[in-house]
Amino acid sequence: MDQPSGRSFMQVLCEKYSPENFPYRRGPGMGVHVPATPQGSPMKDRLNLPSVLVLNSCGITCAGDENEIAAFCAHVSELDLSDNKLQDWHEVSKIVSNVPHLEFLNLSSNPLSLSVLERRCAGSFAGVRKLVLNNSKASWETVHTILQELPDLEELFLCLNDYETVSCSPVCCQSLKLLHITDNNLQDWTEIRKLGIMFPSLDTLILANNNLTTIEESEDSLARLFPNLRSINLHKSGLHCWEDIDKLNSFPKLEEVKLLGIPLLQSYTTEERRKLLIARLPSIVKLNGSIVADGEREDSERFFIRYYMEFPEEEVPFRYHELVTKYGKLEPLAVVDLRPQSSVKVEVHFQDKVEEMSIRLDQTVAELKKHLKTVVQLSTSNMLLFYLDQEAPFGPEEMKYSSRALHSYGIRDGDKIYVEPRMK
């Protein structure tokens, strides 16, 4: 097979990690000098390679000299080849087969969708534990071939691949613990259940930004499909029904849930969302990335009881009855309005007249005088005001500062204001 034109993996490696661009430094994680080996290269003394190689966005189209790759990459454990121009799985295999200790491989955003991955090529990936194929548009046929040849694969990333359906593999992958399959077009639960069949040991399932509308599965079936699932991410899914949230309790080991940006929660306040979710999910220890403390759980469960206590019986969830059994029937919380008063009722005394008035506390003394002008038939310049607090021990206080706000006097309902003409 003809080697594709373009920059080779080995060419980019030599350029990036030459002494001029990547000087040798001592210390953990900084750089590793490659000692001479039987596969040695005349270039071996000029390169200092770390065990983690980052060669993203370098225009790589092919492998280059395989003997050179073997000489320099014997110790490499992580390789980032994302956003290059690799189109042929055979060229990828040439690279990987010469990196014997490779555990992490990132092939994101390489145009590999039109290339068929043969099983003999996939065999070179056998030691990989973490594989990233985001935005590679890898077909399910390719994924199945990989799964059959990677017996130790633990983490698989399949984001941004335009998947609308899931194709079941002929064999289960017992080793996979984490599946990251965000930003696809998976809408039907029948597709998600296939993931449970393929990956029975799955610990973490990240489904964010898929428009999954409902969880159509019985509780018993959910427990069988995902018996080891500990964490699920449903951010920005299409879930719109509380019954779907309740079904998450069917996963026997679930303890972490992420549920931001779903239609169901749009009409609730931030506080209501968190408390209602915590109360409905008794086994979770982390919600949307935050630990659920014991005190918060109890507060949420008590909130849940009070929230639903006035609902019609047919609308009350079963969880309400469970919590009433736990805490008993609770009294509604007293509603305490802590906002400052905006107006008060006072007695206005002028000569022998007493008139009860409602006055605004946000106005100034000068504004109050204007308001009283028609009541007492005095001009504002000829008017003196005195405020008497009903509990004040020292008698009336003259309201002499025209710009002072009335609320600063602490005026309350039932207090008195005396109006007197200014003596000439």
UniProtKB/TrEMBL annotation:
Annotated compartments: Cytoplasm, Cytoskeleton
SUPFAM superfamilies: L domain-like, Ubiquitin-like
Cellular component GO terms held in the UniProt record: cytoplasm; cytoskeleton
Keywords assigned by UniProt, alphabetized: Coiled coil, Cytoplasm, Cytoskeleton, Leucine-rich repeat, Phosphoprotein, Repeat
Residue intervals of the Ubiquitin-like domain: 348-420
Main localization, broad class: cytoplasm
Pfam families referenced in this protein's UniProt entry, alphabetically: LRR_9 (PF14580), Ubiquitin_2 (PF14560)
Top-rank lineage group of the source organism: Eukaryota
Role summary: Acts as a regulator of tubulin stability.
Protein name: Tubulin-specific chaperone cofactor E-like protein
Annotated source species: Jacana jacana (Wattled jacana)
Phylogenetic classification of the source organism: Eukaryota, Metazoa, Chordata, Craniata, Vertebrata
Gene coding for it: Tbcel
